[in-house]
Design a protein that fits this description.
single chain, 377 residues, 13-stranded mixed beta sheet, 24% helix, 8 helices, alpha/beta, globular
């Protein structure tokens, strides 16, 4: 696994993961050249990115909004939805940015980049899709003010996007930690529910512990095709053989090789209980064989429940859903997990994300394409 920096708290780890890879990574330049195919008329067709767009202008109208969060996730989204147009060519979105400033802490990515998001319009089978990368994050931005709730500016951003683009459907996609042992690297969890599970800055927030759901039927027409395309990514998700890190261990055997597997799409109501929620934390959490987060939700990540919260506060919210690709599998709960020196559980969880996050995100983007294609009339 790649060498990781030393982290003192799970909150700091969350911020590291979300900000990781600030440098531009062009998926098209990676060693693996994928050749994804789509049914006739359903290939994503990005708008001309050369067109000048005022960052202060309202967002264009769209049938579907797809938003993602980290750089790896955005690179993967670009690879599938804006082929041949990498994310650095997406338009910047800074509308009313100045009004967010007192809600964003110093050092947060949005302040560094001086924008709320980036975006590019896409067409799939006549359906207008707005793909976006947010610069606001639940775990990056919050300011604690005495006597007030910690700020959560991404909630307002969700409402702003919905009010301007007026989508009928809104999908939040990205990486997550697996909580089901059978959901491995690259599997894409699809659900219509989310729940807050906060223990840091939002532990006392009135929404902590609340669940949200969007009652609509996810179209499955093209999910099998998306899953077939995901198989091209499988070789990049192969885990390496592992053994003790030093010869000091009394181990004479060869490194242990994990079994090979193919990534799958895991749908709520089919592969898990209906409306089984994504778990949203305000720190870096992951599923282990002992914490049994599968009894609470479908996977664990750091922001999706804010979409449910924002939609609950709107008079006419879009139908919304979550697509989260498993970028770290369920970690062995028998490994040491003290928060000092070497926390083996956290080391493995962060290491898995760093090594596989980009490729698992391609699987998640393909699953998202399958859902959007299924919405085409």
């Amino acid at each position: 696994m790649p060498e990781q920096p030393v982290h003192q708290t799970r909150k700091e780890i969350a911020r590291y993961v979300l900000a990781r890879g600030s440098e531009t990574v062009a998926v098209s330049t990676l060693k693996t050249k994928f050749d994804f195919s789509y049914p006739d008329g359903l290939s994503p067709k990005p708008a001309d990115y050369h067109e000048k767009v005022d960052p202060e202008a309202p967002l264009p109208k769209a049938d579907v909004v797809v938003i993602t969060w980290t750089n790896d996730e955005a690179d993967a989204l670009a690879r599938i939805f804006t082929p041949k147009v990498s994310r650095e060519h997406w338009h910047y979105y800074s509308r009313e940015f100045d009004t967010y400033l007192d809600e964003i802490r110093k050092g947060a990515p949005a302040l560094e980049h001086k924008r709320l998001a980036s975006f590019l319009p896409v067409t799939i089978g006549g359906l207008s899709v707005l793909v976006m990368k947010s610069e606001l994050h639940m775990n990056q931005d919050g300011i604690r003010k005495k006597g007030q709730e910690t700020t959560l500016p991404v909630r307002r951003l969700f409402k702003q996007i919905i009010n301007e683009a007026e989508p009928g459907h809104f999908l939040s996609i990205g990486t997550a930690g697996s909580v089901f042992e059978k959901f491995g690297l690259g599997d894409a969890v699809v659900t219509r529910a989310a729940k807050f599970k906060c223990a840091e800055e939002f532990e006392e927030a009135p929404f902590n512990g609340k669940s949200f759901k969007s009652d609509w039927k996810i179209p499955a027409t093209y999910l099998d095709h998306a899953e077939e395309q995901m198989q091209q990514v499988a070789p990049e998700l192969a885990e390496p053989p592992i053994g003790p890190p030093t010869k000091g261990y009394k181990w004479d055997g060869p490194p242990l090789a994990p079994p090979s597997r193919m990534p799958k799409i895991r749908l709520d109501g089919r592969d898990m209980p209906e409306f089984w929620p994504i778990l949203t934390t305000d720190y870096f959490e992951y599923g282990t064989s002992t914490n049994r987060l599968d009894k609470l939700g479908a996977a664990v990540e750091m922001g999706d429940a804010v979409l449910g919260l924002a939609c609950e506060e709107l008079d006419s919210p879009p139908k919304w859903g979550i697509v989260r690709n498993m970028s770290d599998p369920v970690i062995n709960g028998d490994l040491p997990a003290k928060e000092f020196h070497l926390n083996e559980q956290t080391t493995w969880a962060v290491g898995y994300y760093s090594a596989y996050g980009l490729y698992t995100s391609i699987c998640g983007a393909l699953a998202t394409w399958g859902i959007v294609a299924g919405l085409v009339p």
